[in-house]
Write a structure and sequence with these properties.
Largest sheet: 4 strands, antiparallel
Strand content: 35-45%
Oligomer: single chain
Radius of gyration: 23 Å
Helix content: 10-25%
Structural class: mainly beta
Number of strands: 15
Number of helices: 2
């Protein structure tokens, strides 16, 4: 753990060598950290990761987990953070605070995401959206959850998820929510295996209608009708009646 940008250069705060580690053991350290910028680095000399081992950083005074379950997927992993740590930032007037949670699986270092206004989106010939490197959120760790907050104004947006290798997120996914109301905008979206990108569209302010809520979960009118038809076919087969003779009662409870 290194404090960066000090008058004397980078200052090492904590360090554990490979020979100090032991299999299936837990170690903890407590230090007093001045306000500033810090870098947590993790390394694996063999280059095959920590095999489920991980390291976390917590602000004891505030009871806030700053880094959770960090580990190198291969040789190295590095993450930067600031002290004091602001867990819930504030946005300018007219903006919405959004919370993005990424659940990374295998090859987490390959995945990235970005939010792009639809008016500025550049569509490529393969129907994917071109996203500059500076717009991408990267640095994810395999088999670890990462949360980030962003501020956005009223507009229409694309949540673009990508994979640098072009073979999907391997079961990883992310959810984007409005922070203060916990309203989901994109729920457990992922890049399917074999694809390089996937897009979820949303709009701010979010208007909760039946269509938009079903859309959060990838449910469309056509998919509902297909499910209904399949259900009626199955029931009619069991009952030995034509599907037109079957009545399905639905109860909708307000609130």
């Amino acid at each position: 753990l290194v404090r960066s940008s000090t008058s004397a250069g980078n200052q090492t705060m904590l360090e554990m060598a490979a020979e100090d580690a032991a299999d299936y053991s837990t170690r903890s350290w407590t230090i007093c950290a001045d306000h500033g910028e810090y870098i947590l680095s993790a390394h694996d000399s063999w280059g095959d990761g920590w095999h489920g081992g991980h390291i976390s950083v917590m602000d004891v005074d505030q009871g806030i987990q700053i880094v959770t379950g960090a580990m190198p997927a291969q040789y190295d992993y590095e993450v930067s953070f600031s002290i004091p740590y602001q867990s819930v930032p504030t946005c300018e007037d007219g903006q919405h605070l959004l919370n993005a949670m990424v659940v990374a699986k295998e090859w987490g270092e390959e995945i990235w995401w970005a939010v792009v206004p639809t008016a500025n989106a550049i569509m490529l010939p393969d129907n994917s959206i071109d996203v500059e490197q500076s717009q991408r959120h990267t640095g994810f760790v395999s088999f670890a959850n990462t949360t980030k907050t962003i501020c956005l104004g009223n507009d229409q947006y694309y949540l673009v998820m990508g994979d640098t290798w072009g073979d999907g997120w391997h079961g990883g996914h992310m959810t984007l929510r409005i922070n203060n109301t916990n309203t989901p905008l994109c729920v457990e979206q992922s890049v399917p295996d074999g694809l390089a990108t996937f897009v979820c569209a949303f709009e701010l302010p979010f208007t909760p209608t039946i269509s938009t809520i079903l859309g959060l979960y990838g449910i469309t009118a056509s998919s509902l009708e297909a499910k209904r038809s399949a259900f009626l076919t199955a029931v009619s087969s069991i009952a030995g009646k034509d599907s037109g003779d079957i009545v399905i009662a639905s109860i909708v409870q307000a609130g």
